[in-house]
Amino acid sequence: MNKFKSFLLSRKPVITQISLILSVVLLGYSFPQRFSTSQAVIDKWRGANPALVPWVEKLGLDHVYTTPWFAVILSIFLLTLIISTSDQIKKSFHLTFKKDIFTQKEGTIIHTSEEALVSAIRKKGYINIGTYEAAKRFVKHPWGYCGNMLLHLGLVAIIASSLVLLLTQKRGLLHLVEEEVQEPGKPWTVEENGLLADRFVLPDAIRLDKVNYEFWDSDDLKSLSSDITIIDPQGNSRQYKPGINKIITYKGTRIYQSNTLGHAFFVELIDKEGAEASTILLIEHPRRRDKPGHGSFNVDDLPYPIKANYFADADKKMMTGGNPLLNIMITDDKNKLVNEVSLKLGESGELGPYTARLVYISRWSGLIFVQDPGMSGVFFGFSIIIIGVMLSYFTPPREFLIRKEREGYSLVWIPTKFEKFYEEEFKEICSSFAWSDGK
Amino acid sequence: MNNFAVYTGLLWLAVLMYIIAGILNAYGIIFRKENVERNSYRTVYAGLLIHSIGIGFWWTITGHGPYITRNEVLVSDAWIMISVFLVFKRYFPVISRASIIIIPATFLAMALGIFFAPEIRTLTPIFTSIWLIFHISFFKIALGSLLIALAFSIFYILKTRTKSKWLQSLPELKIIDLYAYRFSGFGFIFWAVAVLAGSIWAHQSWGRYWGWDPVETWALIAWVFWGFYLHMRRFFNWSGEKAAYLLIACFTISLIALFYTSHLETAIHLEYFK
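^ Those are the sequences you sent over. The predicted structure of the assembly is below.
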């Protein structure tokens, strides 16, 4: 066991583990990651690097932080940290309450009474920790000895909590149109689960009642929230209003307002034979009143890919007008424009072989649902690290040892860090009394 | 006179004061004219007052703190750099010589900030969290502390390698080395608090505490490098010139993390500068 412990804590394995983790970060940086990159960018990257695609799929290089091999690396690192932390706990306990306070350092002989010397030492903020073998030990900031221990403990808490998250977290994104109901078990717009997590199922049905938003005069988003109703299996309903930075917690699931929003256009397409196809085009809200929001769609039973954009206001004078202007374009396989039509609510027009009609317009927004046990462990760990480092750097401990000698008291000063900064404390005490070299 | 002209005028006036202060300060330190050096601080305080009025004025115009546009970011960075230095100088008078690097760094950051024309940007709801304020403020304070550490590392190298007379007025090499070590420790702590506040903000806004976007990744890399530097000093007894060069490398990585990565396409933080 001891051999294994010393192997794990020796320099090469520790450096190897840190290098492996940094390499994963580098991989995550080099390969577009699914959770932070749009599908279009990923597809483009795959098209440009076909030789790498099999490796990406085999090794999960497009989601490195949620791969089993990353979990293994983290687990080994966590084990190393736990062992190192247990050593640090023993060490800080020993440093604070050690009994073997014999020091090789020669003491300075102070010619005064014990009371006077102790009083001078106490005035400098030193605390009497104990007396061992006729030597009294005074420590300034003894809690500083816990700094490294807390630093290690914090790292353990963060990595352990991150592992719990990596294995068990559940995240789902829903793009809901006003009045739309999402039943538990229905597929998410985007779902991302931990390695050991089951499918993420909503605790109860959710209905988006209304999307509320405002824009500044500069066209930047001013506020965004959603009125939602949660309906349990007995039919009881409760209203909530998640907004940006206003989180709702319901049955252990946190509900976030995503910053995605837009309009849903209900379009009816009728071909020359009179066959009808209806579709709902969810397009992101334009960022500026004079610039359209865009979307690309593949509609079932339609041979053409559809591209669409819209202005929030047909006159391009405001961001929240009730009169959006929708442009629908159909393209061929080579992305070449076949035909296009511009529609306002209730209008219809020719779109290639179809007659398109804009039947209804509604708003949609994104809601994020999260179950992530272990999250508080991450923040706790980080806080512990900061406290540990603060204790270490703001309150470095230093000690005085005093022992009765024939002609006075032997005084030894032991700084643990930044000796030059604090040596005045020792010099001032010596200069307050008559003293002589202890040699 | 319109608001933009008033704001830019105040900033230029502050830059001018800092430039005068920088010249007086360098002259005072190099030629050991204590009076001139003392007066340079009066000019710095005058510059800081005008600088503060400028920031306060712009705050009332935009309705939010100085942390949205490039201009605001750099102008407030400069304000915090000089303020952190002046505050620390009260408690550690030995660091006063670092002024020869801090004051020029301040007016350079200000001048660069002014080149990015000020614009009025409104605050999107994602940026209204109190954790964002902590996140940004602590990064700026960390930068101020690390700049002092950098100054001492440069002093160490200069004093070891050159024979300039003015360098003799600096403390002995051991002390210079210790101050670089100490202030990098402060910077490391403030950097950690900034990252923690940022992750709480991200958790509050997006439901995830870490998104591995370039800014987050580089902030972590920089923090790990500072941790490595402190570790090497504490447990492997690194000191002197070797440590000074490592500190300069860590500072360079921090600058990349703070000023370059936020402009990368994939960064969530790019939202700031759109």
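Chain B has a mean pLDDT of 89. The two ends of chain B are 28 Å apart (CA to CA).

Shout if you want it in another format.
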